[in-house]
Design goal:
By secondary structure, the protein is of the alpha/beta class. It is built from 8 helices and 8 strands, in the order ααβαβββαβαβααββα. Helices cover 45% and strands 12% of the residues. The structure holds adenosine-5'-triphosphate.
């Protein structure tokens, strides 16, 4: 009957019902809670725009979109226009700014923490980094730069843009991990790689840098270590 359920969803155009299949299959027991979550997407390009569409179709409660670029109109306004047509129930916020400038960073941080006057929106639950450059990624991560010059990662004359299929696959993996994190099912991968020569997906932990020059990062590391025993015990009890 599970197979029958799923095939029914394929022809169903309601964006929620396809995801409700996860609930009927017993993989998540709280799918409707997706409406309670807010996700920020930084960079509305190849990966970010597809991830935004996927989360919109999943029925996420609120999406905050950040990008400094334009496509005639701002990328973020263009995305809001398209996404509101796909699912008008998602609260969409458009921020056309550069997160690496002082002013842009302030607005970025303020919007992540903002609470709505009715107390419904209580900050952002997850930030997805979909920017295409090292500097912006570092701003999102707030971790120490390893000193790699980004220009050495790209070769002159080589187009670094992804094929649409790659964007779709990467955004799909990203959103699947976002759903696991928000709805607390399955296992979230801290880092997921893909070795295309062997069709092998290595997953690994990212080690924090105790010598990080960012005080906020060192502070988070301390908090993490303090809460670790309780978290490990809870995971073991499961
Ligand atoms: P591809 O692999 O095709 O390059 P991608 O999503 O990794 O896909 P882009 O399509 O270039 O890369 O998307 C990155 C987006 O991030 C762009 O729309 C760009 O304008 C935005 N972006 C980059 N840096 C910043 C920044 N500092 N502030 C705001 N937006 C940024």
């Amino acid at each position: 009957s599970k197979i029958k359920d799923m095939s029914a969803e394929v022809v169903d155009s309601n964006p929620y019902s396809r995801l409700m299949a996860l609930q009927r299959m017993g993989i998540v027991d709280n799918y409707e809670r997706i409406r309670d979550y807010s996700v920020a997407i930084v960079g509305i390009g190849g990966v970010g725009s597809v991830a935004a569409e996927m989360l919109t179709r999943c029925g996420i409660g609120r999406l905050l979109l950040y990008d400094y670029d334009t496509v005639g109109m701002t990328k973020t306004d263009a995305a809001v226009q398209t996404l509101s047509g796909i699912n008008p129930d998602v609260a969409l916020e458009s921020y056309s700014l550069n997160i690496t400038t002082v002013k842009g960073f302030e607005t970025f941080l303020g919007s992540l923490k903002a609470r709505s006057s009715d107390g419904h929106n209580t900050g952002v639950d997850l930030v997805l980094s979909c920017v295409d450059n090292y500097e912006a990624r570092m701003v999102v991560n707030q971790v120490v730069a390893s000193g790699v010059d980004e220009r050495t990662l790209k070769r002159e004359g080589v187009c670094a843009a992804s094929l649409p299929t790659t964007m779709g696959v990467v955004a799909g993996l990203l959103v699947q991990n976002a759903l696991k994190y928000l709805l607390k099912f399955g296992q979230v991968s801290p880092y997921l790689g893909y070795n295309s020569l062997k069709d092998y997906f290595p997953t690994m932990e990212m080690k924090p840098n105790p010598q990080c020059s960012n005080p906020a990062c060192v502070q988070r590391q301390k908090e993490y270590m303090q809460l670790k025993p309780a978290r490990d015990a809870a995971a073991k009890a499961k």
